[in-house]
Design goal:
Strand content: 25-35%
Oligomer: single chain
Number of helices: 2
Helix content: 25-40%
Distance between the termini: 15 Å
CATH architecture: 2-Layer Sandwich
Largest sheet: 4 strands, mixed
Number of strands: 6
Order of helices and strands: EEEHEHEE
CATH topology: 60s Ribosomal Protein L30, Chain: A
Radius of gyration: 15 Å
CATH superfamily: Holliday junction resolvase RusA
Shape: globular
Protein backbone atom coordinates (compact mmCIF):
# COMPACT_ATOMS: atom_id res chain seq x y z
CA UNK A 1 0.00 0.00 0.00
CA UNK A 2 1.40 3.40 -0.96
CA UNK A 3 0.21 6.83 0.05
CA UNK A 4 1.45 10.38 0.48
CA UNK A 5 0.54 12.52 3.47
CA UNK A 6 1.42 16.07 4.49
CA UNK A 7 4.50 16.38 6.68
CA UNK A 8 3.42 16.17 10.32
CA UNK A 9 4.54 18.48 13.09
CA UNK A 10 7.46 17.20 15.12
CA UNK A 11 6.47 14.96 18.01
CA UNK A 12 7.70 17.80 20.23
CA UNK A 13 4.89 20.01 18.88
CA UNK A 14 2.13 17.38 18.97
CA UNK A 15 1.15 17.60 22.61
CA UNK A 16 0.68 20.26 25.25
CA UNK A 17 0.19 19.87 28.99
CA UNK A 18 -2.42 21.38 31.26
CA UNK A 19 -0.18 22.08 34.23
CA UNK A 20 -3.11 22.29 36.67
CA UNK A 21 -4.35 18.77 35.91
CA UNK A 22 -0.98 17.42 34.67
CA UNK A 23 -2.77 15.94 31.63
CA UNK A 24 -1.43 15.97 28.10
CA UNK A 25 -3.64 16.79 25.14
CA UNK A 26 -3.20 17.14 21.38
CA UNK A 27 -2.03 20.56 20.28
CA UNK A 28 -4.12 22.59 17.83
CA UNK A 29 -1.31 22.23 15.29
CA UNK A 30 -1.40 18.43 15.58
CA UNK A 31 -5.21 18.33 15.32
CA UNK A 32 -5.07 20.53 12.21
CA UNK A 33 -2.48 18.23 10.63
CA UNK A 34 -4.59 15.15 11.40
CA UNK A 35 -7.64 16.75 9.77
CA UNK A 36 -5.63 17.67 6.67
CA UNK A 37 -4.08 14.19 6.50
CA UNK A 38 -7.55 12.56 6.67
CA UNK A 39 -8.78 14.68 3.74
CA UNK A 40 -5.68 13.83 1.71
CA UNK A 41 -6.16 10.13 2.49
CA UNK A 42 -9.82 10.22 1.44
CA UNK A 43 -8.85 11.77 -1.91
CA UNK A 44 -6.12 9.18 -2.46
CA UNK A 45 -8.42 6.28 -1.62
CA UNK A 46 -11.01 7.51 -4.14
CA UNK A 47 -8.38 7.33 -6.86
CA UNK A 48 -6.77 4.10 -5.62
CA UNK A 49 -6.57 0.75 -7.31
CA UNK A 50 -9.62 -1.24 -6.09
CA UNK A 51 -7.32 -4.23 -5.52
CA UNK A 52 -5.21 -2.27 -3.03
CA UNK A 53 -5.80 -3.51 0.53
CA UNK A 54 -7.72 -1.05 2.68
CA UNK A 55 -6.53 -2.40 6.03
CA UNK A 56 -3.69 -4.66 7.13
CA UNK A 57 -4.29 -6.64 10.32
CA UNK A 58 -0.95 -8.38 10.79
CA UNK A 59 2.72 -7.45 10.96
CA UNK A 60 3.94 -4.79 8.54
CA UNK A 61 7.08 -3.12 7.27
CA UNK A 62 6.78 0.64 6.83
CA UNK A 63 9.01 2.88 4.73
CA UNK A 64 8.81 6.65 5.19
CA UNK A 65 10.41 9.03 2.68
CA UNK A 66 9.90 12.55 3.95
CA UNK A 67 10.62 15.69 1.96
CA UNK A 68 12.40 18.50 3.74
CA UNK A 69 9.98 21.44 3.96
CA UNK A 70 12.79 23.99 4.42
CA UNK A 71 16.49 24.25 5.22
CA UNK A 72 16.14 24.18 9.00
CA UNK A 73 17.79 21.37 10.91
CA UNK A 74 15.20 18.74 11.82
CA UNK A 75 15.20 15.43 13.62
CA UNK A 76 13.83 12.85 11.19
CA UNK A 77 12.90 10.49 14.03
CA UNK A 78 10.51 13.06 15.52
CA UNK A 79 8.31 12.84 12.42
CA UNK A 80 7.79 9.05 12.57
CA UNK A 81 5.52 8.81 15.62
CA UNK A 82 2.74 11.14 14.39
CA UNK A 83 2.75 9.33 11.03
CA UNK A 84 2.62 5.85 12.59
CA UNK A 85 -0.14 6.89 15.00
CA UNK A 86 -2.09 8.28 12.04
CA UNK A 87 -1.84 4.97 10.17
CA UNK A 88 -3.56 3.32 13.14
CA UNK A 89 -6.20 6.02 13.70
CA UNK A 90 -7.05 6.07 9.98
CA UNK A 91 -7.56 2.31 10.03
CA UNK A 92 -4.73 1.45 7.65
CA UNK A 93 -2.92 -0.82 10.11
CA UNK A 94 -4.23 -2.53 13.21
CA UNK A 95 -1.63 -1.25 15.68
CA UNK A 96 1.76 0.43 15.46
CA UNK A 97 3.17 -2.31 17.69
CA UNK A 98 2.80 -4.53 14.59
CA UNK A 99 5.42 -2.51 12.69
CA UNK A 100 8.18 -5.10 12.49
CA UNK A 101 10.48 -3.08 10.24
CA UNK A 102 10.74 0.68 9.93
CA UNK A 103 12.80 2.71 7.47
CA UNK A 104 13.07 6.51 7.58
CA UNK A 105 14.83 8.72 5.07
CA UNK A 106 14.87 12.29 3.85
CA UNK A 107 13.82 12.67 0.22
CA UNK A 108 13.47 15.33 -2.42
CA UNK A 109 9.70 14.70 -2.60
CA UNK A 110 6.94 16.90 -1.21
CA UNK A 111 5.14 15.50 1.79
CA UNK A 112 5.64 12.10 3.37
CA UNK A 113 5.64 9.15 0.97
CA UNK A 114 4.67 6.00 2.85
CA UNK A 115 4.88 2.39 1.73
CA UNK A 116 3.25 -0.27 3.92
CA UNK A 117 4.06 -3.89 3.17
CA UNK A 118 2.47 -6.88 4.85
CA UNK A 119 5.07 -9.13 6.52
CA UNK A 120 4.40 -12.83 6.20
Amino acid sequence: MKLTLPIPPSVNACYATNWKTKRRFKSKRYEAWEAEARLVLICQRRNADPMMPQYITGPVAVDYRIGRPDKRKRDLGNLEKPLSDFLVSAGLIQDDSLIMSLHLEWGDNEGADITITEVK
